[in-house]
Fold:
Amino acid sequence: MIGGTRFVGRHIVGAALAAGHDVTLFHRGQTGLGLFPDVEHRLGDRTTDLSALATGTWDATIDTCAYYPRQVTELHDTLGDRGGQYVFISSVSVYADPSEAAYGEDSPLRETDDPTAEEITNDNYGALKVLCERAAVDRFGPGTLIVRPTYVVGPDDYTWRFPWWVARIAAGGDVLVPGPATDHAQVIDGRDLAAWIIEMIGRCVPGAFHAVAPSASLTWGELMELIVDTVGPAGTTLVWADERWMLNEGMNGALMPMWSGGDGGRLISAADPSAAFSAGLMPRSLASTIRDTLAWTRTQEQPATAGLPPEREADLLQRLSIQNPRP
Structure:
């Protein structure tokens, strides 16, 4: 396991152990200290020192944290054929802007003019992931499993993108939400993703799959309403704001997590999950994920940088109400 001490990797390790597998973690030792005490930990930094992986043989290697193609090739240079099936956690961001909802795994991919870039930006993230995928198949072979999720959500989500919305709506009152409500929305519970990956490895299934849920038809508005229905106290009201107005107010995807923020690619969260479903992916209900996420947020201290500060939201709501008074 390359990584394995935070969120997605942590859930994958837990699923592997629950299935009775022996697991080796290769990580920097900077997070998850004391986690999985009965598992072999090998410390190193994949960008500078892979020597801890110079010995050993594994049935599979799961890589959650390769962002540059050289990281994939260097890992293969170290492991050779000792790593077993290679599993690469990619992203639906690999796709060029889809032209229609329910797009498949064979849709056109992003390209970059700078394949040796050493800094990730919003513009090159997806294209670099494409190069990682290609390096994976080139080096580790056609048996490689490529997993392309949208937003991974649920307990232990240190990004606080989805948890922020759940916690905010659970606090009740008027909740500012950026439109358009008709945008598509897909997520995947990290626990379901993890269990499915381990099951796929057990069957040595290769290929690329969309790890997303539910179908490609769920909208941003329906997702927000579901959170209200699941954890919102009585009187909770979603106050929708026009996209252009929000952009003019300086709102973005950091202040309003998971919002497209005027960017292109509105259909990127409308991937067809049928191949993964046919291969055994069985997502739990979104309501269950929402409830579990709320329970997790109540055990954590919300980062100061998560989402829109309350005073800023109150100011925007007030000015929005002046412009659009309720009847």
Q: What stands out?
A: The mean pLDDT is 95.
